[in-house]
Design goal:
By secondary structure, the chain is an alpha/beta fold. The protein has six helices and 16 strands. The strands form four sheets. The chain has a seven-stranded mixed sheet with strand order 3-2-1-4-7-15-16, sandwiched between helices. It has a four-stranded antiparallel sheet with strand order 9-12-8-13. The chain has a three-stranded antiparallel sheet with strand order 5-6-14, with helices on one face. β2, α3 and β3 form a beta-alpha-beta unit. α1 crosses α2. It is globular. The two termini are 24 Å apart. The model has no long low-confidence stretch (mean pLDDT 97). Bound molecules: ribulose-5-phosphate (5RP). The site of ribulose-5-phosphate has 17 residues, from α2 and α4.
């Protein structure tokens, strides 16, 4: 099976976690795009979605699902999103699509995070994937030095030769060379560095369920 087919498989499997009649939280990325495609089959039973990015909002609207503001709704029963890395305890690295801040906001508003990914995303220890960190641009040089002190090399993410600008008007640092053995402590520490908007470690908002696409079918990790 191709990676694309594995993503389709878990995108469809995630439908089982959507409660008919309830608003659903929707993440960002190529795996979530498969989930949104699958969601079209039950759009008459989904009153709306809270979306984590402009890209997912456009796709949800295109299939006829109303997109609601996070502030308009209360707690969501479920948030469905992908990940760049997942450890066996459900801690994740996210932000490859630069949507990490809104993803963390919607995840925090949801009772259950259901992570969907192909099995290549499962790792023993987080850190091989360059860690995305959304930052206020005036803090960039100092934050690069702070990551260097931890042994990491941080680079500003570029798009078309310019610093990428997120949906929130900020920049992304991608940090290589880290080995994140205590994701809860790491997330707490980096999040309080001045100028950090959001660090892409999702340990406090970890996945309750991971649906991993494998050639043998969907593997569920709880
Ligand atoms: C976007 C994300 C994505 O969930 C993550 O990058 C995985 O994306 P994909 O499903 O395309 O592999 O965190 O900010």
């Amino acid at each position: 099976m191709t990676q694309d087919e594995l993503k389709t498989l878990v995108g469809q499997a995630a439908l089982h976690y959507v409660t008919p009649g309830e608003v659903v939280g929707v993440g960002t990325g190529s795996t979530v795009n498969k989930f949104i495609e699958a969601l079209a089959s039950m759009k008459d039973r989904v009153p709306g979605a809270v979306s984590s990015s402009e890209a997912s909002t456009a796709r949800l609207k295109a299939i006829g699902i109303p997109v609601l503001e996070a502030n308009e709704v209360g707690e969501l029963s479920v948030y469905i999103d992908g990940a760049d890395e997942i450890d066996p305890r459900g801690h994740m690295v996210k932000g490859g699509g630069a949507a990490l801040t809104r993803e963390k906001i919607v995840a925090a508003q949801s009772r259950r995070f259901v992570c969907i990914a192909d099995e290549s995303k499962l790792v023993q220890t987080l850190g091989a994937f360059p860690l995305p960190v959304e930052v206020i641009p005036m803090a960039t040089a100092r934050l690069v030095r702070q990551f260097a002190a931890l042994g990491g090399q941080a680079r500003v993410r570029l798009k078309d030769g310019q610093a990428l600008v997120t949906d929130n008007g900020q920049h992304i640092l991608d940090v290589t060379g880290l080995r994140i053995t205590d994701p809860l402590a790491f997330e707490s520490e980096v999040n309080q560095w001045p100028g950090v908007v959001t660090v892409g470690v999702f340990a406090h908002q970890k996945a309750a369920v991971c649906l991993l696409g494998t050639p043998a079918g969907v593997k569920t990790l709880n």
